[in-house]
């Protein structure tokens, strides 16, 4: 077996350190990451002074990097006082003289520092690596995970400086992710390094599975209209839900990404309270970032197949389709529903091709997926749309008839009544 990178953790006896060094001399590895575990983040002493001379004389000279915390660096340097960043630099230089190629002195315990400062020294340059200090009691295991992450990055072939930066970012993100978890009985809890796995599985989780009847009254927001009427997107979404909207899509063409994310998160809270799914138009990144229930993509947006890979199996994906071929492709790509239009001419979307009721019917009959009709639909014509009577036409998606009006709630309620009267999907 070829071993590329070895990372050491706690080595409880002199005999074990000596055996390890002997093995490493016989079977050299590409890189050796030494976490000289002697004092844990929680302050527990994990290895006695008898081990220090073996560390200094045998193990450290073989290491590509060593990653002591302040107490370990001090122990290796016969009790040297380490209280400032300058002290850490001096310690890194002295430890480097013992033979390792790189030294990372971790300043997590540095008094009076609002940042977490680590010093990396490679014999030529010092790098001061700073990240915000995350206030949490769940820090147990951070040193070990940092060194393991460095080893993993080095094994992937990255240079030491980038390996350390990536590892530090990983630990920082994991600390932040798990900072409020109530876990463990002692003064400290473990931090949670499975964050990527968990955040992905959470991202893949939706409150409820997709129900095609959610397409019944589909409210699609428009920032320009809401601005014109002097209301926020959040107020618009609330009003639409109060009026009976069964699904919401945020279609914010002019929003800056950060603003879009913030309003999406606020809207999501409202939607979750009411059990109404919230989709994001076009922006798969925003949907992932705010854990929305899904996305709606057009023919020139990210392909549904790619969106599905990014979003996972449970999120809702809708695709705009004007033809039977597009509807077939949406099904193949793993979409959940299609939006078909424009049924009528509309001013909301420039240069939109109108397919009419016949086009809608043709697409519905070809589609294996549920369909929602869109384009120029409102109280006056929703019934005619639903009367094409194909069983997979589940509802209407509406922008201006709800949001380019003074009272969103009233308009939504009226449309809801019309749709109820049309007895959708019963044939
Ligand atoms: C339900 C629904 N159907 C169709 C569309 C149109 O989406 P797209 O083709 O991506 O065009 P834009 O909305 O981006 O202008 C939709 N948004 N919702
Ligand atoms: C966003 C959109 N997509 C369409 C399509 O045909 O795919 S029509 C349209 C605009 C719908 O707005 P209104 O309800 O104001 O007509």
From TrEMBL:
Start and end residues of each Thiamine phosphate synthase/TenI domain: 217-402
Entry's EC annotation: 2.5.1.3
Domain Pyridoxamine kinase/Phosphomethylpyrimidine kinase: 1-187
PANTHER family: HYDROXYMETHYLPYRIMIDINE_PHOSPHOMETHYLPYRIMIDINE KINASE THI20-RELATED (PTHR20858:SF17), PHOSPHOMETHYLPYRIMIDINE KINASE (PTHR20858)
UniProt superkingdom: Eukaryota
One GO BP annotation of this record: thiamine biosynthetic process
Pathway note: Cofactor biosynthesis; thiamine diphosphate biosynthesis; thiamine phosphate from 4-amino-2-methyl-5-diphosphomethylpyrimidine and 4-methyl-5-(2-phosphoethyl)-thiazole: step 1/1
Protein name: thiamine phosphate synthase
Cofactor: Mg(2+)
Keywords tagged on the record: ATP-binding, Kinase, Magnesium, Metal-binding, Multifunctional enzyme, Nucleotide-binding, Thiamine biosynthesis, Transferase
Transmembrane segments: none
Source species of the chain: Gossypium laxum
Top EC class for this record: transferase
One Pfam family linked to the record: TMP-TENI
Cellular component, GO annotation: chloroplast
GO MF annotation, one: metal ion binding
Entries under InterPro entries matching the protein: Aldolase_TIM, HMP/HMP-P_kinase_dom, PM/HMP-P_kinase-1, Ribokinase-like, ThiamineP_synth_sf, ThiamineP_synth_TenI, TMP_synthase
Reaction(s) catalysed (UniProt annotation): 4-methyl-5-(2-phosphooxyethyl)-thiazole + 4-amino-2-methyl-5-(diphosphooxymethyl)pyrimidine + H(+) = thiamine phosphate + diphosphate; 2-(2-carboxy-4-methylthiazol-5-yl)ethyl phosphate + 4-amino-2-methyl-5-(diphosphooxymethyl)pyrimidine + 2 H(+) = thiamine phosphate + CO2 + diphosphate; 2-[(2R,5Z)-2-carboxy-4-methylthiazol-5(2H)-ylidene]ethyl phosphate + 4-amino-2-methyl-5-(diphosphooxymethyl)pyrimidine + 2 H(+) = thiamine phosphate + CO2 + diphosphate
């Amino acid at each position: 077996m070829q071993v590329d990178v070895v990372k050491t953790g706690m080595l409880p006896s002199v005999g074990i350190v000596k055996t390890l060094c002997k093995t490493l001399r016989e079977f050299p590895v590409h890189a050796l990451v030494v976490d000289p575990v002697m004092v844990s983040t929680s302050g527990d002493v994990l290895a006695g002074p008898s081990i220090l001379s073996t560390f200094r004389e045998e193990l450290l000279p073989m290491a590509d990097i060593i990653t002591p915390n302040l107490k370990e660096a001090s122990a290796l340097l016969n009790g040297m006082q380490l209280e400032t960043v300058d002290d850490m630099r001096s310690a890194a230089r002295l430890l480097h003289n013992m033979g390792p190629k790189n030294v990372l002195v971790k300043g997590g315990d540095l008094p009076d520092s609002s940042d977490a400062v680590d010093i990396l020294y490679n014999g030529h340059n010092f790098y001061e690596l700073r990240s915000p200090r995350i206030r949490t009691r769940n820090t147990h295991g951070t040193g070990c995970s940092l060194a393991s992450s460095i080893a993993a990055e080095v094994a992937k072939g990255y240079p030491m400086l980038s390996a350390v930066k990536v590892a530090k970012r990983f630990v920082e993100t994991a600390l932040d992710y798990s900072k409020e978890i109530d876990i463990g009985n002692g003064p400290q809890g473990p931090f949670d390094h499975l964050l990527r796995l968990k955040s992905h599985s959470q991202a893949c989780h939706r409150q409820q599975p997709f129900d095609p009847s959610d397409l019944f009254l589909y409210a699609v927001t428009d920032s320009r209209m809401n601005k014109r009427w002097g209301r926020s997107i959040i107020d618009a979404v609330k009003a639409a839900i109060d009026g009976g909207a069964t699904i919401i899509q945020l279609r914010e063409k002019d929003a800056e990404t950060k603003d879009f994310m913030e309003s999406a998160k606020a809207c999501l809270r409202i939607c979750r309270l009411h059990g109404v799914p919230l989709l994001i138009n076009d922006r798969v990144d925003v949907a992932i970032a705010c854990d929305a229930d899904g996305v709606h993509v057009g023919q020139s947006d990210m392909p549904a197949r790619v969106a599905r890979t990014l979003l996972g199996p449970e999120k809702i994906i809708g695709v705009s389709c004007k033809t039977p071929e597009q509807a077939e492709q949406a099904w193949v790509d793993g979409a959940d529903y299609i939006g078909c239009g424009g049924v009528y001419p509309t001013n909301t979307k420039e240069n939109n091709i109108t397919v009419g009721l016949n086009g809608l019917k043709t697409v519905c009959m070809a589609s294996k997926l549920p369909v929602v009709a869109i384009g120029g639909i409102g109280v006056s014509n929703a019934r005619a749309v639903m009367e094409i009577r194909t069983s997979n036409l589940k509802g209407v998606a509406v922008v201006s008839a709800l949001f380019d009006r003074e009272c969103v709630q009233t308009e939504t309620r009226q449309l809801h009544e019309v749709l109820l009267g049309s007895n959708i999907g019963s044939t």
